[in-house]
Design a protein that fits this description.
It is globular and about 50 Å long. Strand 4 (121-124) and strand 5 form a beta hairpin. It is built from ten helices and seven strands. The strands form three sheets. Strands 5-4-6 form a three-stranded antiparallel beta sheet. By secondary structure, the chain is mainly α.
Length: 210
């Protein structure tokens, strides 16, 4: 699924995955796990993520290729969240999937809505549960799930967010044209309550499937 980060894309991908009985494959989650584990890849990726830059194509393509060849993705299908971000990644994904990608959904939310959502996001250091300044954990910024410290990530600070959104417009936006030319693109309005957006997504997917 395409869409600016903070547009509710991750939540909607999780809902779609649950609805269709498929794994939700989030490249962002995979990257953050590598960073938390302190792997060599995670340390390198963190340099780009903290600055709001995109992780290089060759790194992301390798991570996705490996994940999509796992048993659950091969047998159940998948909802891919956060990839591709560039046309080069889209071309690589076409090769990885042997052209079997069913559709690409663009969850459309204006930039002026995304920026405050991202700036207000807070995340548990331990388990990754998401909160916001408007919906904090119940007790003193300690996670309701595991008790871990809830913080603002470096890549959710305003300077990094603005850089990421600028990159989205420059690099990721051409993907919509690339997929539209191949009749794979479905554009869905991402504004509104989560249940409303989910209903739009499911209706659009059903219509695309015919």
């Amino acid at each position: 699924m395409l869409g600016r980060q903070g547009a509710g894309k991750g939540t909607q991908c999780s809902r779609l995955a649950a609805h269709f009985g498929m794994p939700h494959i989030s490249t962002g989650d995979m990257l953050r796990l590598a960073v938390a584990d302190g792997t060599a890849f995670g340390k390198k990726a963190n340099e780009f993520m903290a600055a709001g830059d995109l992780v290089p194509d060759e790194v992301m393509i390798g991570v996705v290729d490996e994940r999509l060849h796992m048993e659950d993705a091969r047998t159940q299908g998948y909802v891919l969240d956060g990839f591709p971000r560039t046309v080069a990644q889209a071309e690589a994904l076409a090769d990885i999937t042997d052209g079997a990608l069913e559709m690409v959904v663009d969850l459309d939310v204006p930039t002026e809505v995304v920026l405050p959502r991202l700036a207000g996001r807070r995340v548990c250091r331990n388990c990754g549960t998401n909160y916001s300044v408007d919906e904090p954990p119940t007790s003193n910024w300690s996670c309701d799930v595991c008790g871990g410290e809830v913080v603002q990530r470096e890549d959710d600070k305003e300077e990094a967010i603005q850089r990421r959104l600028d990159l989205y417009e420059e690099v990721t936006t051409p993907l919509t044209a690339w997929y539209a030319e191949r009749d794979l693109l479905v554009v869905v309005d991402g504004m509104g309550e989560p249940d409303e957006v989910t209903a739009r997504l499911l209706a659009a997917i059903d219509a695309k499937r015919g």
